[in-house]
User: What shape does this take?
Amino acid sequence: MRKDVKVKQRAPQSNEAEQAQIEQAVEAAAAALVQRYGEDAEVIATLRAAEFAAEGDTEALHAWDMIIAQLVAQREGASSLPNATIN
Assistant: This one.
């Protein structure tokens, strides 16, 4: 006999909330790279992006591209990632 199970579905996050969450994750990843690799963080991130590009993983590549953009923004003195979006 089958029992019907009701599953609570999460309400979809608003675009702004999702965007803020993405920006926080990108900033945290960039900070972790800088803490671990210092001035080489941008190079390491570029190498990781190249690995995912070679594998054809466009989603991961996009994530690493955002991290690289954050590292460049930090290097150039900007406080946060310009126009981070996830497709």
